[in-house]
Amino acid sequence: MMKKKINPEELEYKNLLQRTLADFENYKKRIESEKALWTNSAKAEIVENLLPVMDNLVLMVNHKPAELQDNSWAQGVELVAKQIEESLLDEGIEKITPEVNEKFDPNLHEAISATEDKKVQSGHIVKMQKPGYKIGDKIIRVAQVITAK
């Protein structure tokens, strides 16, 4: 059986087709990557605008008067706060909640004050004031913390 000899023009077209297909695959991957980036940026922007509302809702829940502990309206407010947090998680938004005695990380935390605390090592977190949020590697808001002197 004899092999068919490919003429140079056919070889050139074959190579062009292979390069075109490879370029198209790279284009599709780049577009998918950019689409994910745009989507995450849009989500981050929306969440950033909603965080003050969420912070105030959490403050309401955390400072609920004792006489309203069994009040159905107050329990509804708590439910709404939980639903918002669950919705954020469903959208890939992660909460940054540093623990007491965790080392302060300026990439994830903002020290809003420092205090003396013999139980906590200097430069470590004494208390979290507000949680931070991130989507993927993008920080939407750093967690606000109080550190030990």
Structure in words:
The structure is a single chain. With 149 residues, this protein is an alpha+beta fold. It has one domain (9-148): Roll (Nucleotide Exchange Factor Grpe, Chain A, domain 2). It has helices at residues 8-62, 72-90; strands at 93-96, 109-115, 125-130, 132-135, 138-141, 143-148. Helix 1 (8-62) runs antiparallel to helix 2 (72-90). The radius of gyration is 27 Å and the shape is elongated.
Which geometry do the CA atoms define?
elongated
Largest sheet: 3 strands, antiparallel
Query: Averaged pLDDT, please?
Result: 92
The name of the CATH topology is Nucleotide Exchange Factor Grpe, Chain A, domain 2
Distance from first to last alpha carbon: 86 Å
H and E order: HHEEEEEE
Q: What is the percent of helical residues?
A: 40-55%
Highest CATH level, the class:
Mainly Beta
Number of H- or I-type helical stretches: 2
Compute the number of structural domains.
Answer: 1
**Which oligomerization state do the chains in this entry correspond to?**
single chain
Structural class determined from secondary elements: alpha+beta
CATH architecture: Roll
Q: CATH homologous superfamily?
A: Head domain of nucleotide exchange factor GrpE
* Spans where pLDDT lies below 50 across 5 or more residues: none
Relative strand content? 15-25%
